[in-house]
Design brief:
The complex is a heterodimer of chains A (about 325) and B (about 280).
Chain A lengths: L26 E3 L1 H12 L3 E5 L9 H6 L4 E3 L4 H12 L4 E7 H7 L1 H10 L5 E5 L16 H6 L5 E3 L4 H13 L4 E5 L3 E3 L14 E4 L4 E5 L3 H14 L4 E5 L2 E3 L3 H10 L2 E9 L4 H11 L5 E7 L9 H7 L4 H12 L1
Chain B lengths: L2 H4 L9 H22 L1 E2 L1 H6 L1 H10 L15 E4 L5 H10 L39 H14 L6 E6 L6 H12 L5 E7 L8 H4 L5 H7 L3 E6 L3 H12 L6 E6 L7 H4 L7 E2 L4 H11 L2
Parallel strand pairs in B: 2-3, 3-4, 4-6, 5-6
Antiparallel strand pairs in B: 1-7
Helix pairs in contact in B: 2-4, 2-5, 2-12, 4-5, 6-7
Classes of the chains: A alpha/beta (about 325), B alpha/beta (about 280).
């Protein structure tokens, strides 16, 4: 077997705190951690806990500010979620952090039974959604939304940027009920307008357009906005509907868009089955809407490790891929 | 009814004769529930009655007419299928009506075969094993943070010591020095597929809990003076969480059930109930 010569500079995965902020015009550091401190200043019921990932899920900001209201649970995710449920049962509002893969794969029963069936007022904040880590299949949360959407009574949120992460943190702190929220950590891009207002369960039409519509969630909305700008330059009017709450799903907003613009590209930082695309397809069937749908997301594989730009390119998740998908549904 | 009557605490006693009487009454409740459904976890309900009588009537600070009083001691049942025993204790304590026990396991009843937390007096939905101690740790952390002088009792089973999450929680209880957390491990030597020693060995339990940093005692779950002494030791031992391993006999109090083999889930012929009731009344 021959080794191909290195012909171009390649990305490296040496920095485990890698983020998606490369090239972003504006960023904020630890938007979740700072938002949780602000919420915690107003509401003394808020407590934090983690499973040996405080520094890597930005909750160390809260722990530094409120050391007695922070509980280290060690590398034990079942104990993490169980303890969060117990804390909630004494009237507190616990925010428990770990990575998507560990929360959902290791502690599923504790989320389903302890948090959701028990209607415990816990907030599970899960880092490294989809392809936001240089690690491979062990750390990439590619099916967490599918797993969490399948649990009755659980609210599921995938924020787009630093602005929405902060707003959603404040909103779920006030919401009475169990929540699973994906976390963008560290240096996080600011891509939504300053006027953006997050509300649990509300999809937001960020750009209107009659030719084709992107329905996107999480950080893919940033790329959908970029793709819409690219398409506009070539005369194609693309709408962007941002659905940051996967559950409860904003059926009215999505159905209205499907009826008006039946050429759809879904975009999610997640397995293309079981997440946003599936929710859109289910809705189209339920509402008897005939649409042409192209799903952009992670294919049915465990992904490689690599730098984030490399992974986005490798698995067809860039803004350019979204623009191409839009051209395909227009054909 | 006046406000003081609503908030009246459950009267506690350390008189073993009174506790035995509570246990006997609870066993009658268990037999009545089991007879109505014709089968079930009667072995567990009878086996744990003495331990539950000791906890509910000598230790647990509750207000029967105000079951969600924030300052209450929590009794967390990990092992949902022991619900029959818990309902007997709740009825005996006046937290649920005795008459309601006749709905145990019936369609539409809140007294489900495995206790749901929507039922009055049930702190947590158990049944998926290995949850109880993890939530109890959280309750203990939350009560301490809020300055509440309340304790958390968690009843788990010997088989439940095979769940990894039980030991995750055991680490956390010791790490956070939860000396107001008491784990009671019921050793009836019977799980779904047989004896734990055959299914997956868990002994020596005393040494395991002690090695995890718990103040550990092992007593007979049918010996009231020993149970009360264990609770006294707990009050005298600060700084660590507490484990009491209680050895119990499934079906205790009804000879026919005590002698039955493979009795995780007992099937009982209709004519056997008369004998069972007679044997209970004749028992010590």
């Amino acid at each position: 077997m021959s080794t191909a010569p290195v012909t171009a500079p390649r990305g490296v995965t040496g920095n485990i705190l890698t983020s998606d902020a490369a090239g972003a015009a504006r960023t904020e550091t630890a938007p979740f951690g700072h938002a949780l401190v602000r919420a915690g200043e107003k509401d003394t019921r808020i407590v934090g806990l983690t499973a040996d990932l405080g520094k890597y899920t930005d909750i160390h900001v809260f722990a530094d500010k409120f050391p007695t209201r922070f509980f280290q649970m060690g590398m034990a995710e079942q104990s993490l979620i169980g303890a969060a449920c117990g804390l909630a049962r004494t009237g507190l509002v616990p925010f428990a952090t770990t990575y998507c893969v560990f929360a959902t794969r290791r502690a599923y029963d504790f989320i389903a039974i302890g948090a959701a069936l028990g209607r415990a007022n816990v907030k599970i904040i899960a880092g490294l959604p989809g392809l936001t880590t240089g690690y491979g299949g062990t750390h990439q949360g590619i099916e967490d939304l599918a797993l969490m959407r399948s649990i009755p009574g659980l609210t599921v949120i995938d924020p787009c940027d630093a602005t929405e992460t902060a707003q959603a943190t404040a909103a779920i702190a006030q919401h009475d009920g169990p929540v699973y929220m994906r976390l963008l950590r560290g240096v996080v891009p600011v891509t939504l307008e300053a006027s953006y207002k997050f509300e649990i369960g509300q999809a937001r039409l960020l750009v209107d357009g009659a030719d084709v519509a992107f329905i996107s969630t999480g950080l893919m909305t940033t790329r959908a906005l970029e793709a819409a700008r690219t398409l506009a330059a070539s005369g194609v009017k693309a709408a962007v509907l941002h659905v940051s709450t996967l559950k409860p799903f904003d059926r009215a907003a999505v159905a209205a868009l499907l009826a008006r613009v039946p050429r759809i590209v879904t975009a999610e930082n997640h397995f293309i089955t079981g997440g946003l695309a599936s929710a859109v397809a289910d809705l189209a069937v339920d509402e008897r809407l005939s649409i042409r749908l192209k799903r952009v997301g992670i294919p049915d594989v465990f992904c490689e490790s690599g730098s984030l730009p490399y992974l986005a390119e490798r698995y067809g998740m860039t803004a350019a891929h979204l623009a191409t998908a839009a051209q395909e549904v227009l054909r | 009814m006046s406000a003081t009557a609503i908030s009246a605490p459950l009267r506690l006693t350390r008189d073993t004769t009174a506790l035995r009487a509570h246990a006997k009454s609870m066993r009658r409740h268990v037999l009545r529930m089991a007879e109505i459904v014709g089968q079930g976890y009667v072995g567990q309900g009878l086996g744990i009655a003495d331990v539950l009588a000791a906890v509910y009537f000598s230790e647990l600070h509750t207000r029967p007419a105000e079951p969600t009083w924030p300052g209450r001691d929590r009794f967390v049942l990990s092992i949902g299928h022991y619900a029959i025993g818990l309902y007997a204790a709740l009825a005996e304590a006046g937290i649920i009506p005795v008459e309601e026990l006749s709905t145990y396991g019936a369609d539409g009843s809140r007294l489900e075969m495995s206790a749901p937390e929507t039922t009055t007096g049930v702190e947590m939905t158990g049944g998926s094993l290995g949850h109880g101690l993890t939530q109890s740790v959280g309750m203990a952390l939350g009560l301490r943070l809020q300055g509440k002088d309340a304790r958390v009792f968690n009843l788990l089973s010997d088989g439940e010591c095979q769940e990894g999450s039980t030991w995750e929680a055991a680490l956390a209880g010791a790490h956070h020095k939860l000396d107001h957390l008491i784990a009671i491990i019921d050793c009836n030597n019977q799980q779904a597929d047989g004896a734990p020693s055959k299914v997956m060995g868990i002994e020596p339990l005393h040494e395991k809990w002690a090695a995890f940093g718990w103040h550990t005692q092992r007593v007979s779950g049918h010996d009231f003076p020993a149970l009360l002494a264990a609770f006294a030791q707990i009050r005298a031992t600060p700084g660590k969480p507490h484990a009491i391993v209680v050895d119990t006999l499934m079906g205790k109090g009804v000879k026919a059930f005590e002698d039955r083999e493979k009795n995780h889930f007992i099937r009982v012929a209709p004519e056997e109930w008369t004998l069972a009731n007679r044997q209970l009344e004749e028992s010590a």
